Amino acid sequence: MTHFVTSYGIWVVVVLVFLESVGGPFVPGETAYIVTAALAGQGHGDIVAVIPATIAAAALGTCAGYLVGLSRAGRLVSKIPRIDRTERLFRRHGAKALFFGRFLPVIRATLGLMAGVVRMPRGRFLVWNVAGCVSWGCAIGVASYYLGDAVERGVTIGIAVVAAFVLGLVGLHFLRHRLERA
Predict the structure, then answer these.
(1) Which residues neighbour 56 within 8 Å (Cβ) at sequence distance 6 or greater?
(2) DSSP characters for 129-150?
(3) Distance (Å, rounded) from C-alpha 27 to C-alpha 15?
(4) Using alpha carbons only, what angle is made at residue 140 by residues 122 and 23, rounded to the nearest 5 degrees?
(5) Quick check: 59 and 130 in contact, CB under 8 A?
(6) What is the pLDDT of residues 102-123, one digit of tens each?
């Protein structure tokens, strides 16, 4: 795997994360990201390039899924049996779903599509999509990087994970208050 990552760089990770975020629930985007960040922690890559590229791929992929959800294909999705329950949940908790759903496999792949199907306002969608992608990308990337580093240097990842989570919650708090004032 090390040879694969060093040979093809982060582009494979970016493509996989994008495809997963568009709506491919079984595309191993997050797995590829974790492996790449861990290898960067061992000196086989540049984490400063991996994290922002992955965040951008996730955000753009979810935006593409949103556009599909707004389209005729989205109307077809809404006719799938049992999807109405998911729609109701997303209508009620769409912003939270975009933020926290990013951390849940399979759910992560449906976020953009469902936001489009329920016609979430574009501005609200963009804010929560970016907030979720940044929090997810930083938390997973930093934790995996230090996990990779821990293999060689014995460094613990607990502090990095807690710090990323706390930063995400603080950011969520400020975004919520900003949206309430708007």
Answers:
(1) 14
(2) HHHHHHHHHHHHHHHHHHHHHH
(3) 10
(4) 45
(5) yes
(6) 998 888 888 998 899 888 999 9
Q: What CA–CA distance (Å, rounded) separates 39 from 73? A: 39
Number of folded domains in the chain?
Answer: 1
**Tokens for 179?**
């949206």
What is the residue type of 109?
A
Compute φ and ψ for 157, nearest 5 degrees.
Answer: -100, -5
Distance CA 115, CA 122 (A): 9
CB atoms within 10 A of CB 175: 16
pTM of the model: 0.77
Tens of pLDDT, residue by residue over 133-177, are: 999 999 999 999 988 766 555 444 555 666 677 777 777 877 777
